Fold these 3 entries.
Entry 1:
Amino acid sequence: MTTTAPAAEAAAAPDERLAYRGPIQRLLIRPEIGALIGAAVIWVFFWAVTDVFGTTAGVNNYLDVSASLGIMSIAVALLMIGGEFDLSSGAITGATGMLVVLLVKEVGEFGGAGFPLSVAIPLTLIFALIIGWANGTLVEKTALPSFIVTLATFFILRGAKLGFAKLFTDKVIVEGLNDAPDHGFWENVFGAVWIRNDHVWDSFLGGRNVVYGVLLTVGALLLIVGVLELMFQRRETPAQARMPVAVVGFAAGVLGLILLAATDGTSDNWLWGIVLAAGGAVGMYGMGAWRYERRADSSAAVNLTGRVGRNVAMGGGAIALGVVLGLILDAESQTEIGFLLTVQGFRAIAYAGLIITGVILLLGAARSAGKTSARTQLAITSMAAAAIVVVAFIVQSQADSRKFRAEFFAVIIGAAVLMLAFGVLRSTFVERRKPDAVADKRGRTLAMTGIAVAFTGLAVRLMWATTFENETIRGEVRWRIAVFYFIGFAIVASYLLLRTKFGSWTFAVGGNKNAARQVGVPAARTKTILFMIVSAAGWLVGMLIAFRLNSVQANVGDGNEFFYIIAAVVGGNLLTGGYGSVIGASIGAVIMAMSFQGIPFAGWNSDWRFLFVGAILLLAVLVNNYVRAKAEAAS
Amino acid sequence: MKKFRLVALLASLVLVIAACGSDDGDGTSTTAGGDTTATTTSDTVDLNQGSDLTFHMVTHSDDGTFWSVVKKGMEDACTAVGVNCVWSPSFNDPSKQVSDIEAAIAAGSNGIGVSLASPEAVVPAATAAVAAGIPVVTLNSGVNDYQSIGAITHIGQTETAAGNGAGLRFNSLGATKVLCAQQEQGNVGLEERCQGAVETFTGAGGVVTQFVGPDANPEEQINTILAALQADPDINAVFGVGPIVAFRAVEACSQAGRECFIGGVDNSEDVTAAIENGEINFTIDQQQYLQGYATIITLYLNNTNLNTLGGGFPILTGPGFVDTDNIAEIKALVAAGTR
Amino acid sequence: MSDPALLELDNISKYYGNIIALTGVTTSVNAGEVTCVLGDNGAGKSTFIKIIAGAHQQSEGTLRVEGQEVMFDSPRDALELGIATVYQDLAVVPLMSVWRNFFLGAEPTRGWGPFRRVDQEKASGIAKDEMAKMGIDIRDTEQAVGTLSGGERQSVAIARAAYFGAKVLILDEPTSALGVKQSGVVLKYIIEARNRGLGVIFITHNPNHAWPVGDRFLILNRGKSMGNFAKDEITRDELIMMMAGGAELEELTKELEAASAGDESLAHLAEEFAEEFHELEERVEDDDH
């Protein structure tokens, strides 16, 4: 018998090892991270160019808009992860809103139902669930694309809304929800509003801004320390003697920040900026020296030749050109210079565009240099940081508002410091390439605590007012219960998706339905429940709209289904199913709302609105893709 | 029993189709004025020379509140002059409108009133009617095409005129800067309304136009108007160029803590209620009753006396205004179905 | 044999209407043994799988599981008796993590009521251990299965079936889409599974993959059984011959020669083909002597 033995050969060959991916990389491939970065960029952008956007009133405004959008896009994201679409998701919001009014109202010659809300609201929910069940069952039974089935549902609902509205009230709008006998109770459930302007909290030592600032700073600090712990290789025994360096450095940085925050914004605050910068950098370096292992190759010579050198030259040139143009051009001039640009606009582009491009070029060069020489990487990173700091000081010296002289300044300096400090640390200490459960746990706990503390700070900022703010925001800050439903639903849905069996099944039926069915996942039931979740979310939004307006127009919600899908996609959900995140979809909804509302806040011509929204959508998706690709390629 | 009926209706989706079907049923041509005319004719003057005249109203109408007033105007005019009138609504379906016009020509109509909401589809049919020697009047929409088809005149309100009126009204209210809030982008009519306001408004701040989101998104509309108000403390008036968006402006102004002058377009029970309790200052009324009434009168006088009303120019039925001064009377008229 | 075989097929046939999909198939699989089912495309392999996986019922013949005669109504019935099927393309959800895939449909939970949640730590730990038993070191069970190599993906499905109490593992063409090295990896996992006492039914069209791991060979051709041999009853070359359908192959060789008249490159190919075929024939004869 002639027998070769490929099996034996294969057994002898080494297993294909899976590359180690650190916690940071694992975090970066989370679908919501790209969206989070996109949201931050858009927020900073509008905060810088408008007066109201960054205030509580502004946040209140776009969170209010994002509430309905967000509730729906969360549900739609779940369904998308499960591999289906629901084009009736927009129409169902109006349909349920209208139905509850019709059930409550005594309507004309046809005779109204005249139900109390306690009956009408559950009936409406049952109606919504039946629609969702019908969608799901039809999709499953017919095996038709959900696009077609739910498109039919959409038209049916749309026609029914108009038809019944006309039939019963002879109008395209049904109204009179507030005539219901038990309206008071249900208004508290679906229509509650809290006006927070009168909750003023501004004594010097216990004032809102102080509490908020402290929480935000502590949160950021914990987050940074946590990230360091996750990124770097621990020493066998920590060098305890160097601990004070870290503590003193961080303390100095915090002090600088506090002093910067306390300034009135009328004088130059470069001293506190330097304290913040130096303190932060020393603190981070001290942290490294205290806890982490040193790189053996950290002394290779600086090498600025070839492509790296060219990129450095281009980046430096772009920044220099931006600064020069920014200095010589008149910031107020409205003279047209062609291509729809004024001198003022050109200056803004020169500042923002050239400098950002320059910094990106420098960071790119630093990254590629880092593969061969840590020192070169560090040198280039320092250049970028220095350039940013210079720009920060120029902006400060030219600006005349407190926002730019203190807040924007602190943000820019902080960003430069973080960039530089991470550059220094990465070129000096060993990045972790192997698992370390203790460090992972500690780092994660620190980082999560940091994020929680920072968010508490933001909540404090939003729920209390200061006298100064009340004077500037021109109006009331009305927190509607819709926003809390939005946040609550995001948490519940995220738990459902990530921690329960049903969540696993959702991923599975969207990722590979046959495989899921093969191992006993009830695929049809899972999808039907997902459709029912969408229509139940539509019911919630319908109630929120009905109780807000006391009337519902027949076309409410029609056409919004695409915005729900867009928000989910911006939030990192795959159109093809099987991958995504509820938190991402929520952030996507906020991004959409911010881009819609930023335009009127900036006073721009709304004709360009969709061009702008399209650009943001594209940018968000690109950032998302880029981050994920980078993270997947890493190590 | 009535309760049961409603629930039963709502519970069954099948009825949606039934409802649609019944719409179509209502939509077929009915001789609305016919019966009354017949009785009136015999009741009143025998010598009425127009008694054998039949006019056709072929419009893109649905059976909403707006068009029911036009129809009432037509009926009243037909009764007054004693002619037969046929009301043919097309429910925004240009092909139905075209076939209704052709039917009217074939029936030897003595005059056709036609609305040109879809000019590219309907203009050829209307031109054919003129060629057949039938007098034609355009109403409601068609101001750009009535001359080319050879109609006697156009009876309606131009959007620019409506905007002009709103601008003047804001002047007299004492507004200094107006936000023209649009609920639809790229809609020519809405643009013309805002543009009209720009032409006549003389306040220091001028008029800024802003798309505030579609009617389908009430929260977005409220918050966009609010954002515009918060971004610009000088704005103290909002011109909502649709009936719904003016309501949204009411809430936005309240949240912004600003005393706004608010104007809207088109009249309905809800708008009259809001004007009555002072939330909205005025609404522009295109007095659509006149569009029905004057069309019949114009056709009648052309038939009996070869008059051409309007002298080749359009006859404007608006802007009329509904505001706090005339709201009490208007309300009674709205209830009577003539406003 | 004192113990009854884990799974026995006795003269199994399947008709779809008047189409004969499978006739007279007899074979068995014992614990700790690999039965290879060989056949070219259209030989009836998928019908064979469907019958033992419970997706279809046989038209004739008997199926015995551990000596007990059975008739499956659904795949669930087969699964309950410990017959698990790993389909070539349907084995895993690529975008899901290793541990979620491993426990998909049977997630361990803890907590109560609305707080009943998947016990991630436990699931992750078991997945890691079970994969280690197959000889794969998964450092990060959060990693998406799609990032694993093709062979490893199959092995996740194999390990999963083994963990959830499969006694008989049906592997549908696990190596057909894989390269040489990856196929080797899968063959290694088949041996691992066998060594753990599972009965394995390995379905393939590649005799080179079947020969080294198989203890028993069932050869199908056009719905008919060409024989059911223990390893000592057949040689590797006979297996190849039989599987390709000797006579047909000879005919094909002739046809190729005829078609290639005048075409030099094709003629060359035909020549090579014929040469290989004759070599194979000779070897079979040698083996028989």
Entry 2:
Amino acid sequence: MHLEGEFQAATPVARVWALFRDPVALMDCLDDPHEVRALDATHFEGQVTTGVAFIRGTFRLRGSYAAETPMQSLRVQLSGSGMGSGTDAEIAVTFSEQPAPTSVRWTAEVRMTGTIATVGERLVRGTVDKKVAGLFENARRKLAGP
Amino acid sequence: MAVDAVVAKSTLPVNSSKTIHVTVNGVARASTVDARTLLVSYLREHLTLTGTHIGCDTGHCGACTVLVDGKAVKSCMMLAVQTDGCEVRTVEGLEMAGKLHPVQEGFTKEHGLQCGYCTPGMMMTSVALLAKNPNPTEDEIRRGISGNLCRCTGYVNIVKAVQYAAKQMAAAPPGGP
Amino acid sequence: MATPELGGIGKSVQRKEDARFIRGKGNYVDDVQLPGMLFLDLARSPYPHAKILAIRKEKTLATPGVLAVITGKDLEAAKLSWMPTLMSDTQMVLPTDTVMFHGQEVAGVVATDRYAAADGVAALEVDYEPLPAVIDPFKALAPGAPVIRTDKKDKKDNHIWHWEVGDKAATESALQGSDVVVREKLYIPRIHVSSIETCGCVAQVDAMGKLTVWMTTQAPHAIRTVFALVSGLPEQKIRIISPDIGGGFGGKVPVYPGYVIAVVAALTTGHPVKWVEDRTGNLISDSFARDYHIEAEIGASKDGHVTALRVKTLADHGYTDAAANPSKFPAGLFHIITGSYPFKAAFVEVDAAYTNKPPGGIAYRCSFRVTEAAFAIERLMDNLARQLHLDPAEFRLKNFIPPEAFPFPSVLGWTYDSGNYAGALRKAMEIIHYADLRKEQAEKRKRGELMGIGISSFTEIVGAGPSKTFDILGIKMFDSAEIRIHPTGKVLARFGTKSQGQAHETTYAQILAEELGIPVDYISVEEGDTDTAPYGLGTYASRSTPTAGAAAAIACRKIREKAAKIAAHLLEVSPDDIEWKDYKFQVKGVPGKSKTMADVAFAAYTNHPQGMEAGLEAVDYYDPPNMTFPFGSYIAVVDVDKETGQVHTRRFVAVDDCGTIINPMIVDGQIHGGLTMGFAPAMLEEIPYDADGNNRASSFLEYLLPTAVETPKWETAKTTTPSPHHPLGAKGVGESATVGAPAAFVNAVLDALEPYGISNIDIPLTPYKVWQAIHAKDPK
């Protein structure tokens, strides 16, 4: 499923970039309990405890950064697996200084497989929407602070 | 290591029920069903019309296809209460006064079935298809039945069965709803 | 009333069973409704490997409609928490402490109806402690891998067995002496039969303690014996009824935990209990097919004659070896892998590994690893032809075992009964206009268009099997027919096999019509009820016509022997003067002086000769002297879209030879279905497990059965080379096309990609995989 959004960050792009480029800081924007560690400059892994429809539990999380243009755009590939299900997401984020100080636009393509796919998009969309939008909302809040 | 309790609760109102008025294969029925009862359960378990089969529970296989107001519907994807006031036709309603429907005749004459499990749904989809398009091309038939899975026949003879029925129906349109 | 047509062998008689199926009056397991019947649903593990810390039943038992929760601990008390598999391994009915795969049954919930049972499953609280899961079979065999079967005291690794056949040294030296050797790794993924009807049963115990189970089983008699051995119930107090079966394809041979739990539930509640699995349960826990990692090499001399074949294979069996192979053949009949060619040396070895997956290794419309074998040899023959710069058809024609070489002893120990391999391939080439297609292809290649032609000239091995080598759990693989002719000349015949769509009611009736001279309309065929049918090993592995069909013919001939004496008595001549001619008993040399089987039948009950037993019936338990070896040649023509990797099958011609054909219409139907189940794994189907052990295809949304849109328009033709040892010359046909088709598709696609020099793409050939393969060679 396709999701998208945008927000204004009241802080220079360098700080915004730094947040999005740091997997631990970025994943800290998830509402669900989680643990994430960086493996190298572009790869990270960890786990997140969450639930969608009747599927709840702890999911293994793997992620990587790709197609980066510093201060302008990046892509994050995320894949979660567990509880007989898998979720693959590709999040693309672009940053611009118009309007200033920083404007953030994002899109997310989320694909679900395994048991979770049997639930059907219409039943899971609301939850997924909330979780993804929540991540960006938390990022915005973090950037609004000191 | 994390210990997870896997608990999920049904949010469906188990106890709410409703009386529905449905015409099934020409017979008017008044039935009280739970709100969450699927149409396929209503047909199979309340009315013991077991010709409509369950194959996948997710709307992919089409074994449960019936006609609701003439439209082919996957009855595992519809609640019984949604058919209140509707006309439902199942495989048991195809044969009229001892005469097979041309689609039934086509399926047996052209060897369009083997295990017979997908057959009722496949025939109901074919009936709906021919009602909309009485003279379909092979390609139109293949697309028309693509929501119904058959694991036995490889579809070649199902296509022939629908073509047979189309020919028969052009010569003598069947009666019935 | 006029006598109906005989409808004997070779006639496209309309199917008898259709009368109920087209009216929605079939009787499948889920259609069985009994008074007071309860419903069983199963809770399943979300983890591929985990310790069960606790199962708390309270909330489930408080759920409206729920009557009982059954766990592994409950079964352990009755020594029923484990059961034997058909390969003499052990399998959990329900776990007592550890779950072994994602989707494994963890507890049974019994309720008044299926909705309440599902509520109960949702309310069940299970605490798990995840354990490291072993998913890749190569890693499973690596030193230090976590041991999966810790329940087996002496088990220190995940290796199940090693099996080998052939002459290793001779093969090594023959390969070394070959001018050309090709070698390829082929992975045949996990696939699932996915009959449209899932598995299920209704178990009932009557006041006399008799257990009746209506069950989706392809082998009811063997199941009864297994139940008796496992439960300790006396075998005569167990009745297995296999009613109409909505497709089997091998998936309904094993005993699944749900059946056993339903029986336990019926015994403990005193009510009939129905269990019908949902599609997700079916796709994540019922036995799988294939999952063979094959490494094969074949050699040839530079003039294009094959020399030797060597194969090393790793089989992923999941957490238990629950395959359905004959006991002596843990890797099935994989050693048919020398195929249609006279290799002088061959060596095959297979190792089996445990992983945290459900049991694998059952059939997918193919007997005993024969598809794996046919796929490997037919794929490698194409690669070898390419190395030798020979046309793949020419290369095969040069190497086929010639018709005069039959019965042919294969280097790995089989004796092929009969064959005319070149005849089948030439016929397929004619129908498809092979030479023209090659010309067209050459022109297209000049324009950069990708068109491919793929051949598969397979040899199958079916009809298991001779009792000296074939048994399952010690039960010899015979099959049976019991025929009774009633006084009015009407027939009731019962068989040890069980149709799942193959139309035994029609086919067997035709054999009887031919042998007895009684019209098919006067013959009723019954199967699947162990209280009435004679013992047999059931229907799978294309064995029904080779075994029970032979039993039918021989039982009829026993009847004819007695009937000839009655005819002689009626015609007042000596039995020596009677001959069976034109479906009648005739007095030799006196045309017109004859008696029909109906005349004789009436006399058998009303006027039989003094000293002779009354009645006209016979039973035969047929022990085949050899396997049968159906064969065929398939040609696929595909066009590949370079930009998307999409493969379009333009034509597919299948020439099959299954010996004598009983009903051409039904045989063609079997071929159409088999081809579709060959197309499916070649192009669409796979059960993928991620690295963490999650099954990622748990519905038809992701496990892609072919629809009418993707399925090619099959073109079929036949040659007929009867089996010399079968009483009717028939060989069996149900699986040939599934065995033969996959290699034709892959060979066609690789032929289309020839300009890129790609020697293999593992099936299924999804557009993405094909695109990736092209893109890797030509990144433009």
Entry 3:
Amino acid sequence: MNTTVKKKSKGLPIGARRAIAYAVLILVSFLCIVWFYILFINATRSKGELTRGFTPIPSTHLIENLRDGVFHGTLPFVRGMLNSLFIASCSAVLCTYFSTMTAYAIHVYNFKFKKFISAFILAVMMIPTQVTALGFLQLVGKMKLENNFIPLIIPSIAAPVTYFYMKQYMESTLPLSLIEAARIDGSGEFRTFNTITIPLMRPAIAVQAIFTFVSSWNNYFTPALILHKDKMKTLPILIAQLRSADFLKFNMGHVYAAIAFSIFPVIVVYLILSKFIVGGTTLGGVKG
Amino acid sequence: MENAKRGKVVSYNKWGYIFLIPFVVVYAVFQLIPLVSTFYNSLFENYRSGLMQVGPNFIGLKNYVTLFTNGDLLIYFKNTMIMWVLGFVPQITVSLLLGAWFSDPSLRLKFQRFFKTVIYMPNLIMASAFSMLFFTLFSDSGPINSILISGGLLTVPFKFMSNIWSVRGLVAFMNFVMWFGNTTILLMAGMMGIDPSLYEAAQVDGATASQIFFRITLPLLRPILLYVVITSLIGGLQMFDVPQILTNGTGNPVRSSMTLIMYLNKHLYSKNFGLGGALSVLLFIVTGILSLIVFRINTRTER
């Protein structure tokens, strides 16, 4: 629709074009925010207020809803958040450290299978984990790792996308002469990696740590297949349980509070870190 | 480490292998072995009916035949593609438009940081929670119906969850909201990479903004556009969280929003490893082919 507007407006004065641009930007921004605004409002309202229809003004029952719906509710949301936090943090640390290491191996050294391995990683980069989930599940079963965080954390060591980003970044920031200099100064290879490469890669590591954290935090498919005990469940699994529960029995204020509890921490962290994230998506991605 | 210090230049290169060990070991154990065993499983009759365990018996490619002949696969593939297209068309349109505006120096848009921050935000929201949120907002007695009724647009609540196209539409819309910011940033980066002298020359020749967009920006953006389309298609084939939570795993009404991965998930839960394996292998082949196209694009832009 918008393109036709543009087509018709051939040679439109700059002021009009600017006005259209702002109108569309405001509209799409509205589409991105309004849901969370309604969520926030409804999380502050009591059961009775919610049945009376929607009003755009927040009410006073937020603490109550959080207390009864999240902290003392039927589903262990606090535990779920701690589990999610633990899994996502460990994944982020392991993923960025070892992906940098893999990128370092390919970037710095020359060896026989280098071409093959870097081409292989690039080729499998886009293959989703779901297609091997069946074998993965059986493997986890055989290793007796069901209801365990290990199968959700350790695989993040081999992350082709993060590797690709790290390698792109390394090519622009890590001169081989620097590593040579470290060697001449008598630094071992492993020490050079830890004390020179890792600090130099810090901006890229920060960006990728955020992305790995978020994708692990949001992951629903694999954890739902592995974690069955209530104590081990992560937030997305609990959300799914909330969805499958009998709705009429629930106080909707509590439901909104639980959803808000899973969504708003990420939004707050995002707003603090948005500078890194929005710029970071393209740093190592596709180059024009 | 001691050896490396004393050795010649060549001896450093063994560290390449050493640094690769974590990746290779983890990838082999958690990706390659599962891939092989998924393929292996697809050749066996192996499922549970009630408390009875059937198989595993070797049956060759029969699972694949069943998959193609019982019709479900085609329906779910169609559902997945419909919802992907419904979300992707507005996504790429809006992204191209916003990307062009953001990267157009003559427009001098203000608050760019703010807008980019806002439109990128939904990408980071937990898809399952976002979907749950939409389920409550669009439920029969939810706030959207209440707003529509009090605004005089409806007299009785619209049952969003019992209408084929409203469920599909909601899934597509959520995917659109979650991904157009990401695509905008990607396309914008591509547009910024276009040689500005081309634009200047076009402007000197009297080209309008839309002519510049269709004659210069779009053609030069083709590799990135292709990349966006293919990666989004791969993502679309993986569509799971949003329809799964929205429809509570049923894909209702009449399984019209059941996606391929939801189907796979069902097999995995019911331990139907034969058919599940065959489905996984098919998905692997399709995403593998698509990945090779992305691989081509990536290696080309690297050069």
